Structures are given as structure tokens and as C-alpha cells.
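quick one before i forget lol
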Amino acid sequence: MDRRELRETDTRTLLGAATLVALVATAGSLFLSLGLGLEPCRLCWYQRILMYPLVVVLGVAAVERRAAVAWTALPLTALGTAIAAYHSWLQATQVACGVGAVSCARVQYRIAGLTVPNLSLIAFLLVSGAVLLAWRWD
């Protein structure tokens, strides 16, 4: 395997991993709302709006080995990371939030001790890291 083929394989693997993280985050959010009946707050909706398209965008980029998807994906992940970090901060420091019908500061569910915004933050960071590595290695 020559260097170019190795780079293409690495790009596909990284973008595939980013797609998988986005897919798990998307499926998890749908399970929490549709499966468990939890109502998402406004900040949760914003995070979903930024995560859901990444499944398709990154999936297509992985198939095409197109690391330049960073120009599309990174603005979504940067904004998603900022919102998830703010949402995590709200839940850690506030008791109420006056935005929307469901309080953004209310912790509705924990997985392994982490709140849903904490998990969203981790997912956005993982996707960002994989996309950045694929772009840098390309």
C-alpha cells in the first residue's frame, strides 16, 4: 500500500468514525424523546439541529474520501460544542432557566453519571477531532 492509498484509508476511517459518533448521538436523542418520552428543551433542539445533518454529510464524505468536508462540518460542530458546553454549564450551576416550556437547567436523565448535554458535548468534540485529523492528514 503506497502513501496515497494509506492517506485515503485513514481519511475514510476517520470520517467513518465521525459518522458513527453522529449516528449514535442522533439515535440516542431520538430514543430519549421517542422511546423514553423525555421532552427536549430549547437548547437540546438546537444541538439536534446541528448534529442530525452531520450523519448524512459525514457519511457521504467518508464514502467519497473527501476530507474537505471540514469546511461544512466544522462550523456545525463548533456551534454545537458551544451550545452543549453552555447547556452543561447551565445544568451544573443553575436551578432554572426561563427559555421554553422545559427548563434547560433541569437534568432529566443521566447515563453513566453524565447528563444529556454532557454526552452531546463529548459527541461534538469527538466528531470535530476526527474531522480535523482527516483534514490535516489529507
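fyi The mean pLDDT is 90.
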